[in-house]
Every structure is written in structure tokens, then in C-alpha cells.
Amino acid sequence: MRIGYIQKPEGSFCAVAVRPDETLLDVLGLVDARIAGTGLRTFGDIIRDSHIYENWAEMRHPYYGVQPFHLAQVWPEMAPIVNEAVEEFDRGRTNVEREAFLFPADTPLLCPFPRPKRVLAIGRNYGEHAKELGNAVPEEPIVFLKASTCVIGPNEPIRIPEWVGRVDYEAELLVVLGEGGRHIPESEAMNHVVAYSVFNDVTARERQRAAQEKKQPWFLAKSMDTSGPLGPWLVTKDDLPDPQNLRISLTVNGETKQNDTTGSMIYSIPFLIAYLSKQFALHAGDVIATGTPSGVGPIRPGDVVEATIEGIGTLRNPVIAD
Q1: Is the pLDDT higher at 197 or at 68?
Q2: pTM summary value
Q3: Which residues have CB under 8 Å from 217's CB, separation 6+?
């Protein structure tokens, strides 16, 4: 299932399922309205009891409330109820008002995961990308952090400060963890994945190179505000059974700059999860940016960047001066 995040006309926020015709359905509201008074557990009950939130008050937050991530986490339990409710909705056998739960395909999408716990990123995970920057193919994964505050959603602008120098795009497959753990076996790693999305690891390249020369971390070069576009939605893992065989591409102003498949990764998703969990505990809500293919290059104010991954969608962001 593709899950997006929107603001309703009256101002509230909600996670929505993206239907085949690209219209958006408030499945949480639909299900809760359908089972009201029946004694069945609502989405809210299930999410609250799953301990996804550290406290109930956080769930009630108007923006950081029930997000696509939380819907994806409880999807295995709720899918049969959702499917039945949607079937009744489509056949007109429900008493709820259609316009209260169905939104047009052109409804602006917000970031589907605006507050990940940690953004764990992998460097040089495509051999040709390592070579194009004059680096050797790494003998083990290169891991760095991006500040979670850098995350923005589809159609939000990437802001480039005038003092920062060259800034590059990097299209990546993002893995969203729904369950944490330590010392996770590679054979069990995919059980910890809940969803996928598109990520653009925007990088202050000159600052990164300066940090490398001084043998300093890349954190500042990778964590500028707006340097983590994410979206346009989350796709639950049942809809992407083979994430290591997806076409990944990126265009700038309509011109193709990157074009490869996730099969070109040096270190696979299960390997990365197992590797990371040996170094430190992983947590639900962590995301892993799995590296970018070759073809990286600069972006400038006035550009429009579109990163696309097969089976997920296209993440579009304009670039402006800051």
C-alpha cells in the first residue's frame, strides 16, 4: 500500500492510502467511522497499544500525530478490516459521506515521515559512484548520520545558502524500520523493515571534501536544512517484495542524470541492517538511506530535481537560494 500524508481542508492532518486512480482515502477515519459503537478496536486503539508512541499525548499532536509510518506499522493487523471497509465504501453500502474521506489526486502531499528517529546513511554503496568521485570501493559499509531536521517533503524547496559552495543531488532508496534490535541476523533482517520511500541525500560537496581532507565527519556537509527530501509516500514492504531489483533515476530540469537499479548496491539491505545492528541498537522509526548510483552532480537555484524509484514514485523538489 502507498501511504501519503495530507492536511485536510478544515486544517487537520491525516495519513491517506493512495488508490489506483491516485485519489487519496482517509482509511483511518473511514474504518473508525465504520466500526464506531461496535466494540471493535479502532486504529487509535491499536496504535496506542503497540507502544509506537512514547506517550499518548504525542499521538494527539496535530501534526506529529498518526502518520503514514504508524499506519504502515499496524498495517498487517488492520489490512483485512481496511479492505472490507474500502469495499463497502466503493459499493456505496456505507453511511459515511464520501467527500469526508476521499480527496482529489492533486491534493498537496506532505512529507510522509517528517520526524524519523535517525537518518542512517550509507556512503559509496554503488561501485561506479565511488569511482566517479575518485574513491576506492569500500571494504565495509561507510556509515554517517544526517540530522533528522533536514527532512522535507515533496514539492518543498531545497534551499541553498550562497556561502555553501557546490551542492549535489543523490537519489537513494530509503528503508524504514518498523522494529528495532541488536545483533540482527542477516537472514531475519527484512522482518524489521516496514516500508520504503525515495530519498534525496542533498550534499554540500565542497564542505564534504574539506571535511575529508581534515579527516573530519561529513555531518555538517550532509545536514543542512532541507537537505533530506523524502517522499512522495511510504510503500509498505508487501507491495515491494524485491527491493533489490528496482530502477532508480534522477532528472534535473527534465534531463536524466542518474539511471541504475538497486541491484547495483555493493551491500544489500539485509546486510546493512545486520551490520548496523552489530554496532548499535536499531530502533523503530530509524531510516536507512542506502546509497546513490553514479551520475551525481550539482544543483542550483531555479532547478527542479525529480528522483524516481520504480514501484514507489517520483519525489519532486524545486531549488531556491537561501
Answers
A1: 197
A2: 0.93
A3: 144, 211
